[in-house]
Specification:
With 148 residues, the protein is mainly beta. The protein has 2 helices and 11 strands; from the N terminus they run βαββββαββββββ. The two termini are 28 Å apart.
Length: 148
């Protein structure tokens, strides 16, 4: 079991978003991160590795992540993700459908399919978004791959 903690607060203010951008565009499931402004940007996450399963507790400023068809073709580790939303608003776009989610909602995603996700700070309290992300190989699902 490995426990990794990352906080942008540990970095110079001018480097915070660039570091997150570089970190999120790499394996295992690359995405492109975007923000309207890097001013005041902050993010943190804690990752717990449990053999093949990774559990992340993530929080941060409003940002968008995109997993394009090009990224899927470049790297597809055949992972599944379950996101559980704790604070903030989440917009998840997939196959021309946008779903708006909030605290207590969940979404299941497959690394083989493109998506857009927007994590938005709580608009009434300005609290950062927060979610739990559970990532695991699709092969661990007990169903045939054609049903997933």
């Amino acid at each position: 079991m490995m426990d990794i903690v990352f906080r942008t607060d540990d970095l110079p203010v001018t480097d915070r978003f660039d570091y997150v951008y570089e970190l999120t565009k790499g394996p295992p499931i690359p995405v492109i991160s975007q923000v309207d402004s890097t001013t005041g940007f902050h993010a943190s996450w804690r990752r717990l590795d449990l053999d093949a399963v990774r559990v992340y507790a993530m929080t941060g400023s409003t940002m968008r992540v995109t997993r394009s068809a090009q990224l899927v073709r470049r790297i597809d580790p055949e992972y599944c993700s379950l996101y559980v939303f704790v604070c903030g608003e989440y917009r998840f776009a997939h196959d021309d459908q946008v779903t708006v989610l909030g605290p207590g909602d969940m979404v299941f995603a497959d690394s083989s399919r493109p998506f857009d996700g927007w994590m938005v700070e709580d608009q009434s309290t300005r609290a950062p978004w927060h979610h739990v992300h559970i990532q695991f190989p699709r092969a661990l699902l007990p169903r045939p791959a054609l049903l997933v």
